[in-house]
Amino acid sequence: MLTKSSAIDRFLRDNPDLRKRRFGLPDIGVRNDGERFNPTVQEIADAIQFYGYGVRDENIATMPDLDLGGGNPIKFKPFPPAAKAMEKYAREALMYRYPYTEGADSIRQQLLNYVEKEGFINTEPYNRDNIDEKGFSVHNITFSVSTSVLYNQIINLLAKPGDVVLVTGPSYGLFTIRTERSGADVARIDLERENNFLINPHKLANRIDQINESLQLAYHRRRGYVPRVVAFLNANPNNPTGKVMGKKQEELLYQISEVCLKRGVFVIDDLVYRDITYDKENIAMPIATIPGMFRNTISLFGLSKSYEMADARAGFVVADEAIIYGIVNKTFQTMDSVPTITGEALAGAYNAKKKRYKAYDVYFEELRELYVYRYNLLKALVNGIDTAEPKYRERIIKTVIENLGFSEATKALAGIPMVDFPENLEPEAGFFAILDFTKIKGMKYKRHTIRTEKDLTIFFYGTSRTRFLVGQSISWPYKDELVGRVSYAVDEDKLIKGMLNIHNAILLLEPKDDYEIRKNEFKDQRQMAEIKVDGWKNAYDLIISSDYLNSLNYEEQTKRYEASFEEYKDLVLVAVRGEEVLGYACYSTTPNVDDFQSELVSLYIKPSEIGRGIGTALFTETCKMLRDLDKKNMIVWCLSDNKNAIKFYKRLGGKKVKTKKAKIGEDYYKEYGFYFQLK
Q1: CB neighbours (10 Å) of residue 280?
Q2: Sign of the C-alpha dihedral computed for residues 432, 436, 441 and 446 taken in this order
Q3: How many whole angstroms separate alpha carbon 448 and alpha carbon 617?
Q4: 10 Å Cβ neighbour count for 71?
Q5: Cβ-proximal residues to 582 (8 Å cutoff; 6+ apart), any chain
Q6: Whose CB among 486, 644, 649, 650 lies 3.0–4.6 Å from 674's, allowing a Cys bridge?
């Protein structure tokens, strides 16, 4: 009789990753079409996964870490009119009926009244009986359980396979991932310091044109259509930079929207942070308030960030009727409908009544002041108390002393050594700040050098269990910099403790070396060849046949390296001081040895540089590279008579596990294989 496996056994066999209990962030997921994320998106996904799961250890259940990277707004009461609307509905309404998929017309009318009061105008309305004087009807609005769900539906609606959504760098990493999970491809336009991290319309136009032209060449109607840029995601205020485009930037907004309109590219106007713009005279301006732009704009509003109601999961979208109808269809096909209480909360927060605006002014005056104070507290902890606005200094000093005591507070309020805020990037909204750690790049802690943002994450978590999102997770445009995104919406004691942890950790660092480690370049091959030839003659004298050693020469070795450069360029690391190559390491991810996942093929140091730790540094960086490729172990071969190499690999934790004969020239020599776990 055939024994059949149980349903759960079969399920776990097909989904082995689900056997392991996971803590922290759930899995990022994959694209709906089964294709791989493009490299830009994969970098973001990897960084977020590492922050949310990878860096955290098995002690997390009993030893909580200090997370400065979360997305929760400040701990504050929910917006009273929205909370009261939910309470009233739950207390008074008869809830026996299923809600309409598109939402009750009475709720949508209140949301419509709000956006019209805020200046939305449709100068090209449909010829319908129920269109009002501003060109709208309730069919221009629907709501759902968060702007994230709405965004997924929008991308799924707009994009065919191969179509592109353009996002900024920096940007909100999870929206970038959601874009590709929903079936579109992602391309990036970088925000630059010289433009104060605001969109340059000319560069936006050129980027769209360049992408469309490349798609035209690549596809040439192979699918029956040519993919194109279908949307530009315009977060205003930007997450995570906090930069705002309001009335003072109206001309810039017009130019951005005009660029997209002329090229047939929708603007997805993400306005979720709009109401916590610090300057109430320059609140983020919706593009749909510009005459002629409504039908090309999809506007998103939500309760989560500004209205202190992330737990309510409520957002709404304003767009052309056809877009709204498509979103409603998606809702019906996936969720059936959205709870009416969600709509009531939205209508409580977003309506045109005088009572609402009066409550709004009182509420947001207090909330904005609290965010500005918290940002000043962060500035004092990073750059010193003198950088905080004078009106906040006494309060900051008192708060820090209460949390740390006088001695530690004095240290904390002197600022963090070698850490700063990027130039031209002071937040004007929201609750995130970017910290620049570039000055500690190359410094060391217990032999481990901080070269990458992953190193940065491991260092701070390892020394103080403190973590935050790094630049890779937010598409930071300056690749040579080490930056982190921290939230100053966390509780005061947590923010103060987190910044002190970072301060104390940096004091543990040792000075950086006078060299750097990077991937090899074609120009390095001559020096690498010389190092190998000199290294063999130096290390293997009296070990390998003198005839063979004498046959080695710079020219032949250089030719071999240059001929194989394209094949091996991503598998070789070099240590360089300026233009001088000091040593190099070559590794393989496909070794010809059973039970081993990778191999350190060679490691050579310039004879004059031996003993300065360069070999250890190259070895360590190679292990990092292999770990990032999910390799769990590595083997290294060395001649049995090479006592110095054997001592080196044993000191690094290698275990001798194999022996083989290797042919060098005309002779055979015994080699030992050393096994390393890539922890």
Answers
A1: 12
A2: negative
A3: 8
A4: 17
A5: 515, 574, 575, 576, 605, 606, 609, 614
A6: 649
Residue 84 dihedral angles phi and psi, to the nearest 5°: -65, -35
Q: Name 488's Cβ contacts closer than 8 Å, sequence gap at least 6.
A: 371, 374, 375, 377, 378, 431, 432, 433, 495
**Amino acid 667: pLDDT:** 86
Whole-angstrom distance, CA of residue 370 vs CA of residue 489 = 9
User: Cα–Cα distance between 593 and 673 in angstroms, integer?
Assistant: 10
Strand arrangement, sheet containing 229-235: 141-144, 315-318, 297-302, 266-270, 229-235, 164-169, 185-190
List the structure tokens of 113.
């009244």
> What is the mean predicted confidence (pLDDT) over 557-576?
92
Pick from 328, 151, 172: nearest CA to 238: 172
Residue in the block written with tokens 């009789």: 1
Going from the C-alpha of 149 to that of each of 152, 179, 211, 311, 346, the distances in angstroms are 5, 11, 27, 14, 15
Place of tokens 């481990």: 448
Answer yes or no: are the C-beta atoms of 331 and 338 closer than 8 Å. yes
pLDDT in tens, 581-590: 999 999 998 8
Return the closest-CA partner of residue 155 out of 165, 146, 168, 145: 165
- For 359-490, strand residue ranges (E) read 432-436, 444-445, 448-449, 466-467, 469-470, 483-487
Residue 76 phi, psi (nearest 5): -155, 160
Distances (CA, A) of 258 to 181, 205, 283, 390: 28, 10, 21, 42
- Integer Cα distance of 392 and 376 in angstroms: 7
pLDDT (0 to 100) of residue 274: 96
DSSP 3-state assignment of 198? coil
Cα 142 to Cα 140: distance, rounded to the nearest angstrom: 7
Q: How far is CA 118 from CA 123, 170, 331, in A?
A: 16, 28, 27
The DSSP H or E segment spanning 492 is helix 492-507
And the tokens for 624? 């990092």
Can you give 305-358 as a three-state secondary structure string? CCCCCHHHCCEEEECCHHHHHHHHHHHHHHCCCCCHHHHHHHHHHCCCCHHHHH
Q: Which amino acid is at 609?
A: E
DSSP structural state of residue 51: I
CA distance 186 to 582: 39
17, amino acid identity: D
In 3-state terms, what secondary structure has residue 445?
strand
The reported pLDDT for the residue numbered 2 is 53
Does 441 have pLDDT greater than 80?
yes
Structure tokens given for 561? 């390296």
- Taking the CA atoms of the chain, what radius of gyration do you get in angstroms? 29
Question: In this predicted structure, what is the pLDDT of residue 221?
Answer: 59
pLDDT in tens, 67-95: 999 899 999 999 999 999 999 999 998 88
d(CA 450, CA 514): 14
CA atoms within 13 A on the CB side of 34: 0
- Cα separation of 273 and 304, whole Å? 9
Please give the C-alpha separations between residue 643 and each of 57, 540, 543, 649, 654, in angstroms, as whole numbers.
37, 10, 11, 10, 14
The tokens for 156 are 């799924």
Structure tokens at 381: 């902890």
Question: Residue 568's closest CA among 529, 531, 521?
Answer: 521
Adjacent-strand bridge partners of 148: none
CB contact burial 430-441 (16+ within 10 A = b; e otherwise): bbbbbbbbbebb
Q: What's the token pair of residue 393?
A: 């200094």
Residues 6+ apart with CB under 8 A from 398: none
The pLDDT, as a whole number, for residue 512 is 86
Nearest to residue 235, comparing CAs of 188, 180, 280, 300?
300
